[in-house]
Design brief:
Elements: H1 14-33, E1 39-48, E2 54-65, E3 69-71, H2 73-83, H3 85-101, E4 109-113, H4 116-120, H5 124-135, E5 142-146, H6 155-167, E6 171-177, H7 183-189, E7 194-197, H8 209-225, E8 228-231, H9 237-245, E9 250-251, H10 262-274
Parallel strand pairs: 2-4, 4-5, 5-6, 6-7, 7-8, 8-9
Antiparallel strand pairs: 1-2, 1-9, 2-3
This protein binds ligand C2E and calcium ion (CA) (3 copies).
Residues 58, 113, 145, 175 line the site of one calcium ion.
Length: 275
């Protein structure tokens, strides 16, 4: 479960009712935001640490609110999840992301974040297959990023979803690795092609020896199990060097690029291929 960052109180005080009112407001506005064209998908590169080339873009949703300005997903995705709006929103995100990816060279893949509610919605797997078909994107070019929270309940629907899409060639990545619990049980059970080591492991300008040892162990496991290890949240060259030396093959973070609009993503790819 995600913590909303605000201090918990025992009383139903005015800040709590304000909070509730704010959530209701976000919910109502989210429902119409897609139609009003206020949402867009940005793309953040995931880079091959050996060659420096872009292998994947992660789709990250952005909401440009006419009054409130840019809203971060951490603010509205939880509301979308609690209210069920995430199903409509998620379908839209997948469709947009697939359309953008269809314009890129064949060896570049697209990663899309999935919430657990999306997976449990009826016809969830079919919705993704249809989005791929409509965009004419090969299923092997889609990677779905899931977190451990996905596996906490209702494993039947989750299992069906994962096996249906895996059999069609869609890949799965385990996101925010190292922050939940029983993670290794899921690594053992599901066919992940990637593990994304949570940003908290590289926070701070340097990576400590301790952290480096942990990343090294995860990378070794990845190599044995044929999974690639992505280091997230790389902001400095020191961090990039440390995680590469520890055995991570892929990296993502502001050191390389922030999430950018689709035309810039396409430009980054074109630039790389001209060199
Ligand atoms: P996430 O999947 O772990 O995504 C990575 C987040 O880290 C993104 O924040 C990204 O902008 C940020 N980030 C990347 N590199 C760096 C760095 O070097 N330093 C720092 N400080 N941050 C970095 P963002 O876009 O605000 O997304 C936050 C979370 O919202 C995501 O975490 C994901 O859980 C959720 N989210 C975003 N887009 C979607 C979506 O389309 N669908 C769903 N279900 N969730 C989404
Ligand atoms: Ca992610
Ligand atoms: Ca992550
Ligand atoms: Ca996250």
């Amino acid at each position: 479960a995600k913590v909303n960052g605000r201090r918990q109180t025992c009383f139903f005080d005015s800040s709590m009712s304000r909070d509730l009112a704010r959530r209701r407001e976000i919910e109502a506005e989210l429902r119409s935001a897609i139609q009003k064209n206020e949402l867009s998908i940005f793309f953040q590169p995931i880079v091959d640490l050996a060659t420096g080339r872009i292998r994947t873009f992660e789709a990250l949703v952005r909401w440009f609110h006419p009054q409130k300005g840019e809203m971060r997903p951490d603010e509205f995705i939880p509301v979308a999840e609690e209210t069920g709006v995430i199903v409509t929103l998620g379908n839209w995100i997948t469709a947009q992301a697939a359309k953008a990816a269809a314009q890129w060279p064949d060896d570049v893949t697209i990663a899309v974040n999935l919430s657990s509610l999306q997976i449990k919605a009826p016809g969830a797997a079919l919705g993704i297959v249809n989005a791929l078909r409509e965009a004419r994107l090969d299923p092997t070019r889609l990677e779905l990023e899931v977190t451990e929270s996905l596996f906490l309940d209702d494993s039947e629907a989750t299992d069906a979803f994962i096996s249906e899409l895996s059999s069609r060639g869609v890949r799965f990545a385990l996101d925010d690795f190292g922050t939940g619990y029983s993670s290794l049980a899921y690594v053992n059970k599901y066919p992940f092609s990637k593990i994304k080591v949570d940003r908290s492991f590289v926070s701070g300008p340097e990576v400590s020896n301790r952290t480096e040892a942990i990343i090294r162990a995860v990378a070794e496991m990845g190599a044995q199990l044929d999974m690639e290890i992505v280091a997230e949240g790389l902001e400095t060259i020191e961090q990039v060097t440390a995680v590469r030396d520890a055995g991570c093959t892929l990296g993502q973070g502001y050191y390389f690029s922030r999430a950018v609009p689709d035309y810039l993503a396409a430009m980054l790819l074109a630039q790389e291929r001209d060199e």
